[in-house]
Specification:
By secondary structure, the protein is an alpha/beta fold. The protein has 20 helices and 14 strands. It folds into three domains: about 180 residues, Rossmann fold (3-Layer(aba) Sandwich); about 120 residues, Helicase, Ruva Protein, domain 3, CATH 1.10.8; about 90 residues, Arc Repressor Mutant, subunit A (Orthogonal Bundle), CATH 1.10.10. Helices cover about 40% and strands about 15% of the residues. The strands form five sheets. It has a five-stranded parallel β-sheet with strand order 4-7-10-1-11. Strands 12-14-13 form a three-stranded antiparallel β-sheet. A two-stranded antiparallel ribbon has the order 2-3. Strand 13 and strand 14 form a beta hairpin. Helix 16 packs across helix 20 and helix 19 crosses helix 20. The radius of gyration is 30 Å and the shape is elongated. The model has no long low-confidence stretch (mean pLDDT about 90).
């Protein structure tokens, strides 16, 4: 369609990543007149400099080859961006160096947009541009040329303009002027991953996991981390207009692995992420949630814990195990306290709970005690998430029916 377009999406939807990948669709190299600022086409130069070189050298015009990586130019739109930054301005120093007056076309210092000629010019967060800079984009988007200051010159640029914006800012009055919105050829909506599988692939690709220590990240742990983002997006206490960034599970995965590494160093074991590591990584969640009024009253950390609990319960519900014996054990007024030990040494702690390790071995399909005990902990956390058993802050598991202790009177 040869359209300029805008990507509209909430934060963390890879809008900038998508724009940068447009450069991969360009030709590997294109010929330009050497030493020209506007990447002039040897057959049709647009700058005074390019026209002069072609007139003087004719068939001997020096040619350079421009790689596609340089043909993509990106600018973050901020309120302090000026027309000179984008389009260009008079350069008195250049006039002095050339020995001409400032009426000469060669004294123009071109902005980013003309320098993107024969390429792609991307602008992130376009609503943050001031109104006068947005007006300066009218000509290039409609007529395909730009005018610089008071010069009677027009540059017929061959450039594709692409933008990104948040829908909330894009539609807000005073953020983006209507004539500019009208000149955008196509409006493309981005979205978060629609299923857990795609989200897990993104996190595995983006998170820093290759740390040279052969860390173990079990599938159910990775799924739980993704489920946290999915649960946060549907939680009524989280602002839907702001969204929950895909950066949340990426940061959470990295923090959880760091907690596992810390435990591995202390107990001299191989790092393996457990559910307790996810709870210990709430700092990766709280900063990425914009809360509604109800959420603000409760606080970010309690809500983050609640979302983690829901995610654990959701993933646990997919497991095919018989947990009745485990629940009966706690209903008989038994209490299990899980100490801070090496993962492999928790076998002696869990073996007192009937069918816990047997179910864990069935799910793990492995003889590695680290993996088996990680599954055992997940079963307990899953039962707690489903309110079949209770858990205190210090990983003390007990009966769900256990009443709270009666507070003694002051008298």
């Amino acid at each position: 369609s040869k359209h300029n377009f805008i990507l509209l999406g909430l934060r963390g939807q890879a809008k900038t990543r998508l724009l940068r990948q447009l450069a991969d669709l360009l030709d590997d190299e294109i010929p330009v007149i050497a030493n020209t600022e506007l990447n002039d086409d040897p057959f049709k130069p647009i700058s005074a400099e390019g026209k002069e070189i072609l007139k003087e050298k004719a068939d001997e015009t020096p040619i350079a080859w421009l790689p596609k990586s340089i043909r993509y130019i990106e600018k973050l739109a901020t309120p302090d961006v000026t027309v000179a930054d984008i389009i260009g301005d008079i350069d008195p120093i250049k006039a002095a160096r050339l020995g001409t007056n400032i009426a000469d076309e060669r004294t123009v210092h071109y902005g980013l947009l003309p320098r993107a000629n024969r390429g792609i010019f991307a602008m992130n967060e376009i609503p943050d541009l001031s109104a006068k800079v947005q007006v300066a984009l009218f000509n290039i988007m409609q007529e395909g040329d730009v005018q610089i200051r008071g010069y009677p010159i027009r540059l017929p640029l061959d450039v594709m303009l692409v933008f990104s914006a948040n829908p909330e800012d894009y539609t807000a009055r005073g953020k983006i002027i209507t004539p500019l919105k009208d000149r955008v050829g196509s409006e493309i909506r981005t979205h978060y991953p629609e299923n857990i599988e795609d989200a897990m692939k993104i996190t595995a690709q983006e998170a820093w996991l290759e740390r040279g220590n052969e860390a173990i990240v079990l599938d159910f742990i990775a799924e739980t981390i993704e489920e946290i983002a999915f649960q946060a997006r549907i939680d009524r206490r989280v602002d839907k207009h702001s969204g929950v960034s895909q950066r949340l599970p990426i940061s959470l995965m990295e923090n959880a692995l760091s907690n596992a590494e810390q435990r591995a160093i202390v107990f001299e074991e191989k790092p393996i992420i457990r559910v307790k590591d996810i709870y210990a990584s709430l700092s990766a969640i709280t900063g990425k949630l914009e809360l509604e009024y109800e959420g603000e009253l409760k606080g970010a950390e309690p809500i983050a814990k609640d979302i983690v609990k829901k995610a654990v319960g959701q993933v646990f519900s997919k497991l095919d195990i018989d947990s009745s014996k485990i629940v009966e054990y706690f209903e008989a007024e038994n209490v299990l306290k899980v100490p801070n030990l090496a993962t492999a040494k928790l076998t002696n702690v869990y073996k007192c709970v009937p069918r816990l390790l047997e179910n864990a071995k069935l799910l793990a399909n492995s003889k590695d005690p680290n993996i088996i005990n990680t599954y055992a902990e997940f079963i307990l956390e899953g039962l707690y998430a489903q309110k079949q058993i209770a858990r205190a802050q210090e990983q003390i598991y007990s009966s769900a029916q256990e009443s709270e202790p009666i507070r003694k009177s002051w008298n």
